[in-house]
Amino acid sequence: MSQIKPDARSTVSATDIAVSVRNVSKVYGDVQALKDLSLDFPRGELTSLLGPSGCGKTTLLKIIAGLLPATSGQIEVNGKTVTGPGPDRSFVFQDFALLPWASVIRNVAFGLELRGVAKSEREAIAEKYIREVGLAGFEKKYPHQLSGGMRQRVGLARALSVDAQVLLLDEPFSAVDEQTRRKFQEDLLQLVQNEKKTFIFVTHSIEEAVYVSDQIAILLPRPSRVSEIIRPSSFRDKGVDNIRRDPEYLDIVDRIWASLRSYVE
Amino acid sequence: MKNRSLYLKLLSAAIVFGAWEIAGRIPVSYAFPTFIDSMLALFRMIFDGSMFVAYGETLRPLVVGVAISAITGIGLGLWIGLSSRFDWLFSPIFIVMQAAPLAALIPILVMVYGIGLTSKVFVVCIMAMPVIVLNTASAVRNTPGSLKEMARSFQARDSDVLLKIILPAASPVIFSGLRLGVSAGFIGAILSELKITPTGVGDIITYSRSIADYPSMYAAIFSIILLAVIFLNLLEKLENVLFEGNNRGYVSD
Ligand SMILES: Nc1ncnc2c1ncn2[C@@H]1O[C@H](COP(=O)(O)OP(=O)(O)OP(=O)(O)O)[C@@H](O)[C@H]1O
Ligand SMILES: [Mg+2]
Q1: A98, A123, A249, B104: which is deepest, by most CB within 10 A?
Q2: Which domain holds residue A135?
Q3: End-to-end CA, chain B
Q4: What is the C-alpha radius of gyration for chain A, rounded to an integer number of angstroms?
Q5: Is A74 left (phi over 0), alpha (psi -120 to 50) or beta?
Q6: Among all ligands shown, which has an atom nearest to the Cα of A59?
Q7: pLDDT score for B241
């Protein structure tokens, strides 16, 4: 794994906001899942949504994806108001959502298939991303022949292959063991650098959020709101191997734990 | 592996036929012929052509009825599964149809449609359709929501969701409904020939029983079972061709 090089990602100008959430509320029957939530996601960066279970992270992600309507408020992606799913966003599902009857390559190419891309073209693109997520050689396998981590990579490759500007990832690493998870986190950092896309990443793990994020939004229940936005700055350019030993990294982890611990019984 | 399952099938056939032969020789009942006698009667009827004439009669209501049941059954099932209002309207009809004592309905059918082909097709449909409709509807309703959501996130059109998500996801259960429906259709076809007018294979059964030619009677029954088994195997082949992935196993979570 190569070094993460310093870049200009930590300086954000107001015009460079890829996704902007404005005063969004969501009510399910008598549960107020989100209340008047506003948050900006800078272009080309990875923003984590971190918060206790049930605070509305998945709800927010699905509203951004256009899969759920907001009760009030609005979402803008590249300045355009979201009214439903669009080609500018793609979703990586926590439960993978792979077609069990389709091979890896058809699954990865499925987003393109739905958009009417010709078979040879979409399979060429799919092959590229299958290689990129490290599944070369598994193109003809079926999902039940893969491990949980490999299935998640298929879901990731599918989301990447439609070349959306914004990637929405709902706890993508929750189904894998700790070693694989660390590898995925390193790969994710690499991916953020290579793909120049905006990543919105839901996680339960404080360490994971601090490790991979340019910006961390801490959500608190209930009703959910953004309680704090943290932008780690100094350890990003120290290389993947040193991040976990960096004093700022450890500091931020502690700080987040301090603000979340009161919500954990 | 393939060979092994073939051996097992042959073995179980040999055991059943062996038991039949022994039961015929004891004999269990004077009206129960041996396997060999029945097979001889079967070959005799095949070679003198009477079997073909009989199946010419029997297959007509069977094929027409099964085709109608399969096509309208799957269509209605899809509709019922997709629309809750339609479900509310039509599901009870098919549940009642499935539970109805068919033999009691036959006189009414004959009164309305006479003793011709129409009544027999109706009997086949009443037997075959409900299970096809109900299986299709419940398979469609149980399509994993996450797959539909995934397709929506890639801006799938409704027709794509139906053809690329719902149908393949539902296909194993739809086909098991078809298999049950086809078996019930065979029963319906024979029942209609026994209860409405004795024609075809039903006629062979009725006639040979009336003259105490039990080997012929059992040969006719055997032939219809054999035909049903062949037909069900063909259906399985069709499923494997249409939905290649179905025999690949499923992701458990
Ligand atoms: N379809 C629904 N109908 C009713 N209430 C819902 C629905 N989906 C979510 N909720 C409620 O909204 C709240 C937020 O749910 P959400 O799934 O967004 O939480 P989350 O932050 O993703 O939790 P987790 O970290 O456990 O995945 C919860 O209290 C949940 O009970
Ligand atoms: Mg969630």
Answers
A1: A98
A2: 97-163
A3: 27
A4: 18
A5: beta
A6: 1
A7: 85
In a domain, B156, yes or no: yes
Q: Domain count for chain B, please give it.
A: 1
A31 lines ligand 1 (CB under 6 A): yes
Same domain, A105 and A73: no
| Side-chain half-sphere exposure of B17, counting CA atoms within 13 A | 14
For residues A31 and A106, membership in a common domain is answered with no
Q: Is the CB of A203 under 6 A from ligand 1?
A: no
Q: What ipTM does the predicted assembly reach? A: 0.85
Kindly give the pairing relationship between strand A89-92 and strand A166-170. parallel
In a 10 Å sphere around its CB, with 0-12 CB exposed, 13-18 middle and 19+ buried, how is residue A255 labelled? middle
Half-sphere exposure of A228 (CA within 13 A, CB side): 14
The alpha-carbon gap from B192 to the nearest alpha carbon of chain A, in Å, equals: 40
- The continuous run of DSSP H or E covering B2 comes out as helix B2-25
**Contact (Cβ atoms closer than 8 angstroms) between residue A173 and residue A181:** yes
Please write the tens of the pLDDT for every residue from B144-201.
999 999 999 999 999 999 999 999 999 999 999 999 999 999 999 998 888 888 888 9
Tell me whether residues A144 and B252 touch, CB distance under 8 A.
Answer: yes
Record the pTM: 0.83
